[in-house]
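Q: Here's a chain of 399 amino acids. Please give me its 3D structure as tokens.
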Amino acid sequence: MSDLFLKLAKEHGAPLYVYDADIIEQKYNEFTSAFDVPKLDIHYACKALTNISVLSFLKSLGSKLDCVSVQEIQLGIKAGFQPEDIMFTPNGVGEVEYDDAISYGVNINVDNLQMLEYLGSTYPDLKLCVRINPHLMGGGNSKISVGHIDSKFGISIHQMPLVHRLANKYGIVINGIHVHTGSDIHDGDVFIRAAELILGAGESFEDLEYIDFGSGFKVAYKPNDFYTDIKKFGSKFSEVFNDFCDRMGKSFTLKFEPGKFLVSESGSFLTSVNVIKQTTACTFVHVDSGFNHLIRPMFYDSYHHIENLSNPNGDDKLYNVVGYICESDTFANDRIISEVRKGDILRFKNAGAYCFTMSSNYNSRYRPPEVLIREGKSYLIREREKIEDLLKGQNLIQF
């Protein structure tokens, strides 16, 4: 695979994002086979990676779609998803965006009482899902923990009487409930505890058809790293869910919204080395990228394993890998990498989720191209930006 990466870097230039569709398929099959329930729906959380070719590939595997904006809905439909297979799960958006989403015919998830009242009074025949905040701390760090008591996400589990009051007042049919506690959760018991709370709340919704447990499963970023054992978790969680269905005398649909789990490990970010800078304190490797392309290490303190594709058998040395942005943009401190030389191609692993989608044009830099590999064949699925892309929509006023 290293030779293919080097070939692609030479063909398309660096920096470059590369995704392996075979790995996406492997992760999708691994996830779906982990659960033994009568009805299972997988809604890919497309905010992780929204390239329409990746969306189209996931659709071909049988996935449905989770969207957090109308623009993601539009991308999903462009990729071939039917509106009824799309769940709209925004946070804090206004009435206009909900109106737009409803006009597409997608499923609607509501995370606040004000919007529940608006939708119930405006769209009396619309079935709704409500997002519940279980007040559980889950996630790899505070920035990706979204189910605790101080979180902006969801309707407090203690406010369910208000939800029922609004539903009765406007005749709202609530056919789904949703919970998501955070990301990078390697302890499956967090999901089990959330399930116990949410399933208990679900007993009071007489029109309930499905329960959506979001996602947040952890993947391994480094050797010997923690990760969610999805097979073990799926077996245990299926028992809890099936017991609930038996108790209620009804076969509910179990939904999940994996994003990172499906695409993170498929992605590689390839950069070229501009400069090796030796100081009295350390050795800097300056690459032709920065947090304009890959912000996760700076924003989340996330780890991305880095390997030198051009010199894999070189002597191991200690480096600080940094970018070319005119601010601090450190990818890695004190990282052991085989000897790096000017022009070498470095590969950042786990670059499939929340990498390109969080990129920007800061410093007026172009965003990189994207390539998808399927069964050894590569496809350019996004071209490198040009100056015309930066100028698009701008109007020059002469003074």
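Q: Can you summarize the key feature?
A: Confidence is low (pLDDT under 50) at residues 137-148.
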